Amino acid sequence: MAIATINPATGETVQTFDAATDDEIERALALASSCAASYRSTTFAQRSAWMQATADLLEAEADNVAAMMTLEMGKTLASAKAEVLKCAKGFRFYADNAEAMVADEEANASAVGAKKAFVRYQPLGVVLAVMPWNFPLWQVVRFAAPALMIGNVGLLKHASNVPQSALYLADVIRRGGFPEGCFQTLLIGSGAVEGILRDPRVAAATLTGSEPAGRSVAAIAGDEVKHTVLELGGSDPYVVMPSADLDAAARVAVTARVQNNGQSCIAAKRFIVHTDVYDAFAAKFVELMSNLTVGDPTDPATDVGPLATEQGRVDVEELVDAAAAKGASILCGGKRSDGPGWFYPPTVVADITTDMDMYLAEVFGPVASLYRVADIDEAVAVANATTFGLGSNAWTTDEAEQERFINDLDAGQVFINGMTISYPELPFGGTRRSGNGRELSAHGIREFCNVKTVWVG
């Protein structure tokens, strides 16, 4: 894929970028390695000040940065600006809390025959981040903020369709005061990742993206005995039980499905509804989905903008069309409109069977799958009938049902009477083929640490 900004609303190529040469990659690796050796000795107070300054810049530049993100990947201006401000919040969260999160942990010295025993968290060094286009800033910041605060340095290989976002991140972190080489963007294709990851100066890697990409990076890192954190796909269930507030559940369901134009790993994708309230919920949900405005993402009246890539729309179309050909019911949407840009309408598909690809595949667009279930046992079974396990949602006011979903939904996150959202304060990650490891919270900052045992006799 060419490294280029292509406007998804028009299909127009706005700007192309040259890939980094081998010499440029080598200079970046050398600089990162040199920086890591000294940066690890800076104080938490100094890193915190740089991080707060970076957050200040993000907030001051939010409107322009949001416009850039909308141009590159088609998210609405409102959601783009919200993402910028969320990044500033993430920087501030770690600026304020990182030192306490990785403070020395005292152990029971007498139990191990020591005068003193404790655990110390220390940085690993250079961490390679391979990031996706759907949240061009936030996906990176949720790695970068904790990594920089513990004393690691970062190399970013961003998605090839968001090069301006990638370059901006390195620039704003530099302008925030972080030392040269502390965080660098490499404009490279996926073919260059293996060589960088195998380089002995790179200590670890993190990837957010597709399952095939995760497998590839994990295999290389495993061969090199390097730590990875992987956040891969998701086909999150959204369960609605009879005690739920149906109006609220339907309203939130729409946001949960079409957030980021439907291109979010933690978007609810499979709506699993108890038969007693299925018809009522389906009617409300379909009406709300049908009433969404699809169009120019820079227009404040737009609810859903274009998909980020032409191939992305093809993938969505093929899944919906194949399901319809096998007997699925299209309750709304299902057909792209004519004209420029990679738009696809909010779509609800029902009567899905296990022989349809849509039953297991992650549909990365504004397409909802609707399932009718007889009881909570079937709801849990359908919810877990996927290879993924990222987020999950369940709507019920019955405390026993809530406890059942909390225990039995096989996912890294369970949200009751709400929708899955990433917060700096909570750990984020999945199970099964949704990846391994955790981002955010104290768990996220400790992922790229040497957890060092200290015993003093």
From TrEMBL:
A Pfam match: Aldedh
Source organism, top-level taxon: Bacteria
Record SUPFAM superfamilies: ALDH-like (SSF53720)
GO molecular function: aldehyde dehydrogenase [NAD(P)+] activity; succinate-semialdehyde dehydrogenase (NAD+) activity
Organism the protein comes from: Gordonia asplenii
The keyword Thylakoid appears for this protein: no
UniProt keyword terms in alphabetical order: NADP, Oxidoreductase, Tricarboxylic acid cycle
One Gene Ontology term from the biological process aspect of the record: tricarboxylic acid cycle
Lineage: Bacteria, Bacillati, Actinomycetota, Actinomycetes, Mycobacteriales
Domain Aldehyde dehydrogenase: 3-454
PANTHER family, sorted: SUCCINATE SEMIALDEHYDE DEHYDROGENASE [NAD(P)+] SAD
Entry protein name: NADP-dependent succinic semialdehyde dehydrogenase
Tagged with keyword NADP: yes
Similarity comment: family membership: Belongs to the aldehyde dehydrogenase family.
Matches recorded under PROSITE patterns: ALDEHYDE_DEHYDR_CYS (PS00070)
